[in-house]
């Protein structure tokens, strides 16, 4: 394992103790840098004729000026330029620094949960979270989840499960297959982890296919996009079958809250307009209109929140939901 060897060289061993704070700062800075690449992915993946590597350098979407490295420093360029392009002074969306800060926060959280020194488990968690950030923001903008993320994740999951069995340390199937004795000495083994991964993909994809089938039966319309199915299938490979179901539970809860907020927002807007026009439309009709307008929410972002929460705090979530 070349990677493990290299990581081993960085690990504090013997008398060279690297303080945790050094690693935390490293992961936060790395998160900012990765976040700026994710911005490019979010912008490019759903657009025709653009790929991660083409065009080579970032340009201002308003004036097409190629950005120099000074204008491309994550977060700090945006802050120094006060959120404006240096060439044309067009405002740069606050979404860009937001994605960078979110990614940095997620990397920090991963290090906090996994342990700050570099490890393969920490790397896998960061990669999964980075994928979720891209899926979430593309889904917000285009109501679709890029296949590069969902199908890519389905291929990556078995590979990671096999190489880093610690990924499924908390997955019940993997624990049972490994057996108590081996579990106590060496943790979950590779094959058990791989089986847990496939089970997670089957359950994650299967449960959403089931829900969408039920939805079509009852409401006669598509309640669930296939992108969501692929995303939860891929996620199941990383968080196991129980994790996938838990992620869906958290996602549904978050989406209901957001949906309710959305309906209320539309309702206030409609009532305000009704008052301004003074046509006294009944409240009941405003509510019906608001419910329709508030219904169209992408589910991917909430699924992303659920997956992220389970990936980082799976034990705590289980205790919160089921302990009482
Ligand atoms: Zn510009």
Which residues form runs of ≥5 with pLDDT under 50?
A: none
Mean pLDDT, to the nearest integer, reads 86
Note the run of SSEs as H and E.
HHHHHHHHHHHH
Q: Rg from C-alpha positions?
A: 22 Å
Measured as a percent range, the helix fraction is over 70%
What are the bound molecules? Answer: zinc ion
Number of distinct beta strands:
0
Counting helices, strands and paired strands, the structural category is: mainly alpha
Share in β-strands? under 5%
How far apart the termini lie comes to 44 Å
The number of distinct helices, counting runs of at least 4 residues, comes to: 12
Largest sheet: none
List the helices and strands and how they pair.
Blueprint: H1 2-10, H2 20-44, H3 76-80, H4 95-114, H5 120-142, H6 147-163, H7 172-178, H8 180-186, H9 190-219, H10 226-277, H11 283-293, H12 300-322
Helix pairs in contact: 2-4, 2-5, 4-5, 5-6, 5-12, 6-9, 6-10, 7-9, 9-10, 10-11, 10-12
The chain binds zinc ion (ZN).
Zinc ion is lined by residues 60, 62-63, 65, 85, 87-88, 90.
Describe this protein's structure.
The chain is mostly helical and 324 residues long. It has a domain at 1-118. Helix content is 71%, strand content 0%. The protein contains twelve helices and no strands. The protein has helices at residues 2-10, 20-44, 76-80, 95-114, 120-142, 147-163, 172-178, 180-186, 190-219, 226-277, 283-293, 300-322. The protein starts with a helix and ends with a helix. The relative contact order is 0.09. The model has no long low-confidence stretch (mean pLDDT 86). The site of zinc ion (ZN) has 8 residues, from loops.
């Amino acid at each position: 394992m070349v990677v493990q060897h290299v990581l081993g060289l960085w690990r504090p061993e013997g008398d060279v103790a690297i303080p945790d704070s050094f690693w935390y700062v490293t992961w936060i800075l790395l998160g900012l840098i990765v976040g700026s690449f994710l911005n490019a992915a979010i912008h490019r993946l759903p657009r025709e004729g653009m790929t991660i590597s083409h065009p080579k350098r970032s340009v201002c979407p308003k004036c097409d000026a190629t950005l120099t490295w000074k204008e491309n420093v994550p977060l700090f360029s945006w802050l120094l330029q006060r959120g404006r392009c240096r060439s044309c002074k067009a405002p740069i969306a606050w979404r860009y620094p937001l994605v960078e800060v979110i990614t940095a926060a997620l990397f920090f959280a991963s290090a906090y949960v996994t342990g700050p020194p570099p490890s393969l488990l920490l790397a896998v968690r960061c990669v999964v979270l980075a994928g979720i950030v891209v899926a979430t923001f593309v889904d917000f903008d285009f109501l679709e989840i890029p296949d590069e993320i969902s199908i890519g994740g389905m291929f990556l999951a078995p590979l990671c499960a096999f190489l880093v069995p610690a990924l499924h340390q908390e997955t019940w199937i993997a624990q049972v297959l490994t057996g108590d004795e081996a579990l106590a000495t060496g943790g979950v083994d590779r094959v058990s982890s791989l089986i847990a991964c496939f089970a997670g993909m089957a359950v994650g994809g299967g449960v959403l296919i089931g829900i969408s089938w039920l939805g079509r039966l009852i409401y006669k319309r598509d309640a669930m996009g296939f992108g969501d199915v692929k995303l939860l299938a891929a996620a199941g490979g990383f968080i196991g079958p129980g994790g996938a179901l838990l992620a869906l539970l958290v996602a549904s809860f978050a989406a209901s809250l957001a949906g309710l907020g959305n309906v209320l927002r539309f309702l206030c807007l409609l009532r305000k307009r009704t008052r301004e026009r003074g046509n006294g439309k009944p409240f009941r009709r405003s509510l019906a209109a608001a419910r329709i307008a508030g219904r169209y929410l992408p589910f991917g972002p909430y699924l992303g929140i659920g997956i992220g929460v389970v990936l980082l705090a799976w034990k705590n979530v289980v205790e919160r939901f089921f302990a009482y």
